[in-house]
Amino acid sequence: MLFEISLVRKGIVTADDFVRALEMQIERRQPIGRICLEQKRLTMNQLFLVLAEGTGQKLPFGEIAIQLGFLTREDLAEMLLLQSERTPTLSECLVQAGALDGEELERERRLFRLLTVEESSHTMIRSEGPRAAAV
Amino acid sequence: MSQPFDPEVVSAFVLEAQLTLAPVASALQSRLRDAVELEPELEDELLRATVAVEQTAGFLGIGDVSRLSCAMAALLNARRRGQIAPEPEDLALLTRALERLHQAVSRTTQHGSSDVSAELGAIRARLTSAAEQVAAVAR
Do the interacting molecules here have an ipTM over 0.95? Predict the structure, then answer.
């Protein structure tokens, strides 16, 4: 997200593009319940019970499924990983929304990484003091 | 885009939704027949059932079922949170909507759909008029 924010700060993408890309990403994120059903980790009956139990509660779906004994933490971690793999990154959404092209994105990403590495080495020097910097 | 689910999953949804909605529908009908108010426990049970149906129908892309149950949940939530004052007519409205929802679920196939526009329109009209009343009081 920091990289995409830097694109807005540099004026490469607009704040509107950023919001549109965020909305696109949220829209494309598959619900955990759907993934559990598709991966046959929950039966339809268990899915209904978890959803009904979650009504009016602030606990996330996965936590309720664990509380009800339908999923283990390992199952949930696996499902969350799948969810994350299937969700396009914010950068991908920016490209898909036409805010910038793939080539421009890669160039900016390389620049951002360089600057981030440089920034973190400066921070290290500052925090370790002048002796460390002299070494 | 998401892959459609196989017909076996959709059939499992239809069965589970029918099992979930049937007892609530019959309880609502008996309250309506006896002209008894909707008690909070039954209202909660109805909300839980409609939310489970709404979200699963949403995953499966069953638009008519998802839209109608979403509208019902919105009305129930608004009553529960005190955003709108409960009206005696709500029971008839919810009973009618639940019957239509049950029917729409029963007719569900992967590409099938039902006409839920009348019930959807009635719930929206109820929510809109309640919102207008709140706005008028605020003025």
Answer: no
